[in-house]
Amino acid sequence: MKVAVMGYGTVGSGVVEVIESHRAVISKRTDGEPLEVAHILDLRDFPGDEREALFTKDFNDILNDGEVKVVAEAMGGVNPAYDFTMKLLKAGKSVVTSNKELVAQKGLELLETAKEYGVNYLFEASVGGGIPIIRPMDQCLAANNIEGIAGILNGTTNFILTRMIEDKMEFSKALKLAQENGYAEQDPTADIEGFDACRKVCILASLAFGKHVYPNQVETEGITNITREDVSYIASINGVIKLLGQIKYISEDKIAAFVSPAVVFNGSQLASVNDVFNAILVRGDAVGDVCFYGRGAGKLPTASAVVADMVDAAKHTERRKIFGWGAGSEDYVVDYKTTISMPFYVRAKSSVGAIKSVFGEVKFLSRYGQPADEVAFITDKMTENELKNKLEGIKFINTIKITDY
Amino acid sequence: MKVAVMGYGTVGSGVVEVIESHRAVISKRTDGEPLEVAHILDLRDFPGDEREALFTKDFNDILNDGEVKVVAEAMGGVNPAYDFTMKLLKAGKSVVTSNKELVAQKGLELLETAKEYGVNYLFEASVGGGIPIIRPMDQCLAANNIEGIAGILNGTTNFILTRMIEDKMEFSKALKLAQENGYAEQDPTADIEGFDACRKVCILASLAFGKHVYPNQVETEGITNITREDVSYIASINGVIKLLGQIKYISEDKIAAFVSPAVVFNGSQLASVNDVFNAILVRGDAVGDVCFYGRGAGKLPTASAVVADMVDAAKHTERRKIFGWGAGSEDYVVDYKTTISMPFYVRAKSSVGAIKSVFGEVKFLSRYGQPADEVAFITDKMTENELKNKLEGIKFINTIKITDY
What we know:
2 copies of one chain form a homodimer. Chain A is of the alpha/beta class.
């Protein structure tokens, strides 16, 4: 079957590579018919590339090729990927994507269009890179009420935090190392501020609870305020700090969804997810906790998920897969700061006495080199707003949520 | 849609319970049509059970009910489950099962019959209880050459080993605790001798590499020889002992598959799988390592996987899912003892000098209370037969494989 690839960056070139190098396994799944890349769309030139004959700068070459039934979109960004994808779906072609930004922003319209035109829009690679999560979640959903989801969804920040934890690095030095290793962009904002994780939370929440959640509905806090001192206090109680995306079911019409640093205790499956690995934990009322772990980014892992979707779309040209969701609403995602209670880690310039007079008998932490005027402690369960009120008048340095995952 | 459940033990009663308690989520997936349990087959009486009206002791009540399109088999054992399943498939009914013994022994015939009669035979719950593994593996397989699989597949033995590791219990005491907690049967043989894990290895290997592997082809060693002393030596090098099922790709016509205690080092996703939890790690050439974790047994987790399969079968009455495999052969599974090289942990009544003279400069381990005439060490990579040869003349107490997972 003829297919096309849009975008020849890391993922797109990986997709072409996996299709070429995995002809045998792919053919087994498509009744002996291999996928043949007929067009590669990219505005850049790749002189000397062995696939030069396949390149085009004209999107219409793909749109108008009636033999192309499945297209991989690995362009990234909302435009022109949205416009192209819409046109392809309306032309009766299935589209698979690794583009989390597009799915998070425009997934609803694209899924509805795919449904209308009887084709597939698949996005396994948009969350967790190579980790199968969209289909397994679909399966968990079939006989469970999902209570919550927690995920380490960004490899760059997890690499940075791992270096801070294991090698006692400062944030800035760990970020530099991530950049030197190619794990972080020159402008690392989307990763370290949590925006990338936020998009993935939107996709997981939309899929899990059936209503589109948009990035601006998900309160997002990055890891730039995390210090070696915080890491050290948390280590003293056998915990680690991770950037977590969390989603909690509240009612048929309400969920909470947020991205922030969070304390996970050793023993949790999420605690041992290190370096650029990702993991997604799904909590169902019948199955309990299930967890999916693997490489959340990288050329071949992500490409293998894109190609698996292409194979699936190729097998289902006559029939749609049903992954999807409906419209959301402005008040669907609640303000977690006033609704979700949890314990917090707090570090402050204060005294044990002053803290006790406000927070009662809390657990105090200690670290090597702790200054006499610094305290760190774990609060009882409360909302973030309640915490904020209690901290009024206290010179706090940092607060971090503590999870029950 | 009318469905039936065969076997009203732990899993079967859980299936009925999940169908009743999850009407809303199930209906969402089946276009508004809930599953209705029309018959429950069990030879026992359940006087006073609220579902009394549904019970039958006559299999023909299910076989001859033309409205029943999907049947859950949770009887366990090969007979009469095999006979019943065959008849149902031939009558055009899809069957889903949690019965690993039946799938491992008779999966090929049942899958071929299902294919012939255009119905589904689904078995997600037969491996890893509630953990989605069959479908995710299918997805991994679509664009990866699978290099190997390693799994903690039996909750009972993992509970026992966890207690030996965390609480320094003797094996016999940990087994007793497992029995008291309902995690182990009065006759614990199938679990502690590795037979249960062996059946799951057969199913995973058959699915991953497309040829049926039978239990008698998988060399199986249980955990009864593991002692606190071994646990203690292994802890000194930051490792833990797990009962692992391992499968390794060798060539298109050869695999290795075996069940045994094995050393996993902390940092591996498999090392932090404790108590009755299971995990399955799949290593693909494109995706790298992915790992699936959750409750591998228990009433509701397993039942939720059975019901998810029932939902899938209910949605696909017109169309078959393609999970399956072909015939195997006697020489398909190689003797791993002569082909797979790995390091080993060895404990012996010997001396450092004697060991060095045979094994060269190996790493020696120590433990609290180590007798003067006992040594423990880690060998270089070798096959198990090579190890056996080298150990001739040495009074060894135990040897344990060391994994690269």
